[in-house]
Structures are given as C-alpha cells and as structure tokens.
Design brief:
The protein is mainly α. The chain has one domain: Orthogonal Bundle (MetI-like fold). The chain has 15 helices and 2 strands. The protein has a two-stranded antiparallel ribbon with strand order 1-2. Helix 7 packs antiparallel against helix 10.
Length: about 300
C-alpha cells in the first residue's frame, strides 16, 4: 500500500505558522483581556478596561484619521500603479521596467524615508530650488498629512504595480479592439472591458497596499506631525511610553480584525469576479453554438457604451 506523506510534508510549515503566527496572536488576544500592571506588563486578572479605554474621543479621532489617510493613500497608489502596470505589460522592455520597479526594494525602507526628508525638508532640494527661483521663505512640505500620504504611496507603489502587471499581462488585448469596433470609446473600452477582467489583480493590489498602510508606523513618525498620528504610533507609544500593554493589545486586535474583515469581503467578491471573467472569456464564448466568439464578449462587456 502506498504511504501518504502529506502530513509529514505539511508539519514543518504548520509548526512554523503555529510558533510565529498563531502563538503571538493568542498572546495578544489574552493580554487585551488582562489588567494593566502597575509598572507595565499585565497582571493575571480578567479585565475589559482596555476595550473601555478604546472608546475615548482622542483614540476615535486617530482611528478615523488612520482610516481616511489609508484610503487616500491606497486610492492614489492604485491610480498610479494601474497605468504603470499597463505600460509595462504592453512594453517590449518588460524586464528592464520591472527591474526599475524592484530596485527600491534593494534599499532599506528607513534610508528611503530619510531620502524624502532630504527632498521635502526646509533645507531640502525642493526648497533650495525655490529659493534659487526667488522665493525668500521656504514651503513647509514635511510634518503634515500630505507628506505622510506621499511617502506611503512611494513606499508601497511596487506592491500594487507587480500584481496589476501580472494580471494585465495575461489580458487578451484584442477584446479592446473588438469593443472599439462595436462603438466604445477608448476610455469606455478600458473601463467596461479591461477593468472587469483584471479585477483579481486590482483586489490583490488593494490588499497589498491598504493593509500595511493602515498599520504604518515609521512613515508617520518620521515625516508626519501631530495631525498625522496613526494607530501604529499609538500602539508603539502604549508599549514603550505609557506601558499599557492591554490597551496596545486591544488596539492591535482591532486593527487585525478590521483588516481581516476587509480580506474576507474581498474573498467573497472573488468568485463573482472569476464568474465575470469566465463570461467574457473569448475561448468560452467561441465554442460551437456560442455565436460570434470574442466579439460577443467585448459586446457584452461594452454594452451601453
């Protein structure tokens, strides 16, 4: 009888996930329901005080600000990454352009943040150029929400470009030509034909950018001000300054729960996206008895154009 070694192969991965993912998560959950220690840490006494403390107006404002800045940065990242991914997919020099996208990963993220400080600072490159042009006083580019969003977009742009490129590269561009032949404008053919077919890449790009941006710590700390404080900074302060471990754990659990809900909602939409792609598949539409093949797919996608 042939032996099944599946459990043996999966055991190292399961052990790794248990030790480095499940166990820390369980510890955080447990700490959020314990009492704060007098000198930091926790006391082995059940308490919901950490979740009560989360209801204070200051923390709610920080949460709303974090959500707003994360949404703005994610939308800006996707709007920039979409044409970049399309350009790379249509280019004859894909390897070179992908290399240029990946190059920033070779540099430590702190170095990249300090590079932006050198660019946007009061004595940075931009303000020096403005003074050469006749502006006597510099412009405050740093330590505001705009600077945080700008640097966040730069930091996580490759995470959006790569999945979008991978999806667009597999797209059948003859569908765009068919939609144009059927009366759609160039923009309408992109919106009604291409975007529904690359929805999987869009979902992945959104998840790869929104989740790390929502928990960002270093960028708001270094280029943001008091009005750019995000939840990641609050968690760090509760751990290192206030030493309120239960509250830090409760905030971390809330962030984890929110991102898990977002992932779950996108996962529920994925089968619908796959069904839409299958309906517009020119090969499926081109089977015997299906009619006009790829043109019918473009026609259904560009309907009403």
């Amino acid at each position: 009888m042939k032996r099944n070694y599946g459990m043996a192969y999966a055991a190292p991965q399961a052990l790794w996930l248990t030790i480095f993912f499940a166990a820390p998560l369980v510890i955080i959950i447990a700490y959020s329901f314990l009492k704060k220690g007098l000198y930091g840490g926790v006391e082995p006494q059940f308490s919901l005080q950490a979740y009560v403390d989360m209801a204070n107006p200051t923390l709610m404002r920080v949460t709303a600000r974090t959500l707003w800045m994360s949404l703005v940065a994610t939308v800006a990242t996707i709007l920039i990454a979409l044409p970049c991914g399309y350009s790379i997919a249509r280019s004859k020099n894909q390897a070179l352009r992908l290399f240029l996208v990946i190059v920033p990963f070779w540099t430590n993220f702190l170095v990249r943040i300090y590079a932006w400080i050198a660019i946007l600072g009061n004595e940075g490159f931009i303000n020096q150029a403005l003074r050469l042009l006749g502006f006597k006083s510099g412009i405050q580019f740093l330590y505001n929400q705009g600077a945080v969003v700008l640097v966040l977009v730069y930091m996580y742009l490759p995470y959006a470009i790569l999945p979008l490129f991978s999806t667009i590269d597999k797209f059948d561009f003859t569908l765009l030509e068919a939609a144009r032949d059927l009366g759609a404008t160039k923009m309408q053919s992109y919106i009604k034909v291409m975007l529904p077919n690359i929805r999987g890449g869009l979902v992945t790009a959104v998840l790869f950018t929104f989740i790390p941006i929502f928990g960002a710590y270093a960028v708001p700390l270094l280029v943001g001000g008091k009005e750019s404080y995000m939840l990641g900074n609050v968690i760090a302060d509760q751990l290192t300054k206030t030493r309120n471990w239960p509250l830090a754990s409760a905030i971390s659990m809330s962030v984890t729960l929110l991102t898990a809900i977002a992932v779950f909602m996108f996962a529920l939409r994925k089968p619908k996206a796959q069904h839409a792609v299958a309906d517009s598949d020119p090969l499926a539409q081109g089977r015997p008895g299906s009619g006009s093949g790829g043109a019918s797919a473009a026609s259904s996608s560009a309907g009403g154009a």
